[in-house]
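Re: export button greyed out
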Amino acid sequence: MKVIINDKSIEVPQGTTVLQAARSAGFEIPTLCDHEALVPYGGCRLCLVEVQGARTLQPSCTLPVSEGMVVKTESEKISQARKFVLTLLFSERNHFCPYCQVSGGDCELQNSALKEGMVNWPLSPNWQRYPVDASHEYFVIDHNRCILCRRCVRACGELVGNFTLGFEDRGAKSFLVADFGVPMGESSCISCGTCTQVCPTGAIIDRVSAYRGKVVDVEHHNTICVGCSVGCGIDVLTRNNAMDRIEGNWSAAVNGGVICKVGRFIPLNEKRQRVNTPLVRRGDALQPATWEEALDEIALHLQPLVGNNGKDIAAMASTRLPAETLYAFKNLFTRSFGSEMVTATEEGVTTGLVAAQADELGKPFESHLGSVQAADCILNIGVNLADNHEVVGFFVKRILPGGVKLVIVDPETNPLEEQAEISLHPQLGSDADLLKCLSAAVVKLNLAKKAASISNESDLTSAVQKTGLTSEAIESVARLLASAKRPAIVYGKGITAQSTNTALKALLEFAELIGATLISTKGQANSVAAAQYHLDKPLKINGHQAAFILMADEKPSQRLIQKLENVPFLVVSASYISQLTAMADVVLPAAIWAEQEGHYLNLEGRLQLAQQSVIPQEQVWTSQATLEAVAARLGMQVEGEWEIELKKRVPAVAIS
Amino acid sequence: MAKPKIASDWLCGCAGCHMSLLDIDERIIAVAELADLRSSPITDLKVPDITGVDVGILEGGINNTANEEVALRMRKSCKILVALGDCAVFGGVPAMRNFFTLEETLRRAYIETESTDSEGKIPDDPELMRPTQVRSLQQVVPVDIFVPGCPPDADTIFYVLAELAQGRIPDIKGDKLHWD
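Workaround output, generated via the alternate export path:
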């Protein structure tokens, strides 16, 4: 369509809003309630423009262009209108710029007023006292600063699908509430912090970074979260080489800007103590040492263990480490030391069966998160998306209001049940049976998308009994999923951590029958890369003389600590002090996730580069540098083609 | 032609804006060459000339009847009135007092404070000023020029003084315009 904006003629597709058209033509229109990731709302009225033939000024953010529309984005009338809108916004509640955390550059409301050249407020604040809700662990809501733009409400619904935030009452009494009017800290809020990121004023502010200074003064680091295998794109804000705040990156391909508390808040609330210097055990106690001394000690104990069929040394690396480091790790211990007990902290629990399946099939069999976002019916089995891999849960929850149906299969109560069409609670361990019954039901209902024969009836009856469910319930789920045009299955540990692949095979068969795409939530940040490098066997200490644990910033499990208790010589490279470092013979200070860079392979096969955001203290080395130093001391090599090696094994999802 | 006369005073403010004014450092000599600095709270003369001045500058908002009197006196005495700083322009930090009733405020200040070791008494001598709701300057008298900031930069204040001293109205925008 042809549109004339400020005497400039442009062509835009039908459906474009006047705001989008103006921007594409190079004209900036001020906005407040508008946001790049949210559906336009038209609430603040700051984006008003003159449209020839229209009686009044029109909001450009929600007005679709029409053929031959003539628009003016600057005029005396528009300028007066903007000042008036801002004046009303300021006088509606109580704004105190002198001491506000976002005043002086980070407040979109203030910036809009300054842009219009406003030197004062023609109207005074309303002086009615609005509450401050400081009940939430990670952020504070000051209702005096709220401009009722609803960005937070829209984000909580549209981006995350949680719908905790809403508005009660009308007109001057309009008020932001959580659930039916409870303190934020007692609400159904899942602490994703998206509301905090989108709030244009200081109404919702992050507790940690408040009062540290203006965002305009920070450094931005475009990197990847290593909280789980989703690998969300994040922006780490640092000030004087310290992390200030973590935000979602709106232009990231994986997550489009949404992140969960694991990526946003938990890293800034770290309570553990850092390992600041190498430590060597002398007698009973660990004593500070130099890197030289620590490496000497390591060489002293490990050099004799080289060779000997590799039965003397066990090694384990954290799946939070980059691919390059995992590769170097494998090179050092599998190749140079010849050890057979080389694995990663996840021990293949979530990836083992899936990787084996890919090996067997000889090709990838899972798909991308995009298939979940485009689904019309989703089966969620074997993973609680409210507990972990939350962003996948967001993708599921936020499309449900559009009519997408969700089926939850979980032996325990699952928070997503409330929004599910059907929930099944089979007996623990009966997944394989359930899936066989579902497949049989699909065939019986004649809804199978490929030819299949029906199983033995008697087998089915006993299978139904094992699940503890009724055959009607199973049939209704089968009918729902099989009638869908684009069914998607999201599954996880419940299926993939089992001791045999019976349940997995049953799931694959069911997926094929109903033509569903599959995606599993493969554990930690680089569990997939670890699987690709075959670093996925369970750790078994059996007479090993030494163990080398490249823990990085991961928290060691009790199981691991117990397994390593009797190893004669234990080297631990870790970021934080723990029971594990306390029992080690040599402790090497390791960089945390933000202090290193490297590649991560996410659950949908995306190979992403995480950048360094913080420079570690002098004595703290990256796990990569640690491996190189140890190798050099022992006369070994860790270099090689990490990427080629990564792509050798057939992955569950094609690597891109 | 006589040099324009400038007088200043402060109301419910912290004096920070006057300190920022002093931060123009040696440029005050240039201002003094172009204009006649009459009275201010930080010089010998405290009250503007009875015959009037050209420019009156007020820092701080109005928080009691005494402030009201000073504001009215300055407005009557000058041709151009300048509201200096966020308190004068918007009400500022003292305006947070408006969330409480006068009674609550006086009781808190004179009776409930932790450092009051006797019974405490709210002063009620008829000669004393009475507290009022905290207001910005323009809610009490018409204001001609607004200089927001907490405090406004010394550079901004110098610009304002220099313009006024040369008979021009300052246009505060861009780098000079901020509300914090």
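The first strand of chain A starts at residue 2 and ends at 5. The button fix ships in the next patch.
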